[in-house]
Input
Amino acid sequence: MQGREDIKSDLAGFRQSVKPLLQKYCVDCHGPDKQKGDMRLDTIDPDVVGGTSFDQWEDVREAFNTGEMPPEKKPQPTGTERDLMTRWMDAEFKKVKLHGSTKKRGTVRRLTRDELKYAYEDLLCCPIHD
Output
């Protein structure tokens, strides 16, 4: 069994998969030239477990999972890109929980677009088309 000190962020996965997506979809509005919402993602600390940007990552995760970001008028990630980003962030937040970090603001989690769609379909007993 892994000890708490052995739980580390997936920095290689961030560099390989997540950082290019942030560059592609986020940095124009949240980078060196503009920092909408006081958020800068080109310099965000990728170490979600032990780094300095946990609160920012919570904001990114919530905005991304709810579909608030990127805004509708901006280019949107493909389903594969969205899944990759969601899986990386979810895995990192699970590590924070396993690590026993006290940085967490709370345990409230919003549903992703797909989860909400499936919940409505289950509730209404009919498929919902995008």
The mean pLDDT is 87. Helices lie at 11-25, 54-65, 79-99, 113-124. The chain has four helices and no strands.
